[in-house]
Amino acid sequence: MTVPFETVRKTLTARMASFTGIEQGRIEYPNAEYPNGGVFKPPATGLWCAFEIQYATAGFAGMAEKPHYRRPGQVVIQCFCRRSTGLSAINKLADALSEHFQSWQSGHIECFEASQQVVGDFESYHQINVNVRFRAG
Q1: The listed CATH number (3.30.2000.20, 3.40.50.150, 3.20.20.70, 3.40.50.970) that belongs to domain 5-136
Q2: How do the domains of the chain map onto residue ranges?
Q3: What is residue 57's DSSP assignment?
Q4: Distance (Å, rounded) from C-alpha 32 to C-alpha 26?
Q5: How many angstroms separate the CA atoms of 12 and 4, rounded?
Q6: Among 78, 94, 82, which Cα is nearest to 126's?
Q7: In sequence order, what are the beta bridge partners of 39?
Q8: What single DSSP character describes residue 26?
Q9: What is the pLDDT of residues 63-120, one digit of tens each?
Q10: Fewer CB atoms near the end CB (10 Å): N or C, the chain?
Q11: What is the distance between the alpha carbons of residues 27 and 9, in angstroms, rounded to a whole number?
Q12: What pTM was estimated for this model as a whole?
């Protein structure tokens, strides 16, 4: 079964929304509406995240009544902390996100391993990405 993109988006976004390791108001979702004028504003203190789904090239998976395709990709959760606040809290957040997503499955959507990518320091914040491979279909 080829899983529709909207089903993938809803399923993976719902998984992020069920994460309790950070307040939902500290997570930016793609093209979401926010009460403060429609734009996500990072908090003045503490951690925050941005959630994104990146698709890779789909592949043929089989034939039944019609062709079946698998849609691979990765969930990218950008984690941020203010500079000069240490790395302990952001690393604990990355660990918790990894545990929440890796080896998780819902229907025909399954998540695999999670990896941490240190992006580094920018202006006033430090960034670490949690990347989780997934396959739909």
Answers
A1: 3.30.2000.20
A2: 5-136
A3: -
A4: 13
A5: 13
A6: 82
A7: none
A8: G
A9: 888 899 999 999 999 999 999 999 999 999 999 999 999 999 999 999 999 999 999 9
A10: N
A11: 16
A12: 0.92
Q: Find, among 109, 92, 102, 110, the residue nearest to 131 by Cα.
A: 102
As a whole number of Å, the CA-based R_g of the chain is 16
| Eight-class DSSP state of 4 | P
Write the CB contacts of 111 (distance below 8 Å, at least 6 apart in sequence): 15, 75, 101, 102, 103, 104, 105, 132, 133, 134
pLDDT per residue as tens digits for the range 112-122: 999 999 999 99
Please tell me the distance from the alpha carbon of residue 35 to that of residue 60, in angstroms, as a whole number. 42
Under 8 Å between Cβ of 58 and 71: yes
Query: 85: which residues sit within 8 A by CB, 6+ positions away?
Result: 126
**How far apart are the C-alpha atoms of 81 and 89, rounded to whole Å?**
8
Residue whose structure tokens are 């976004």 = 13
DSSP one-letter code for 20: -
**Structural contact between residues 90 and 47, judged by C-beta atoms closer than 8 angstroms:** yes
Residue 38's contacts (CB-CB under 8 Å, 6 or more residues apart) are none
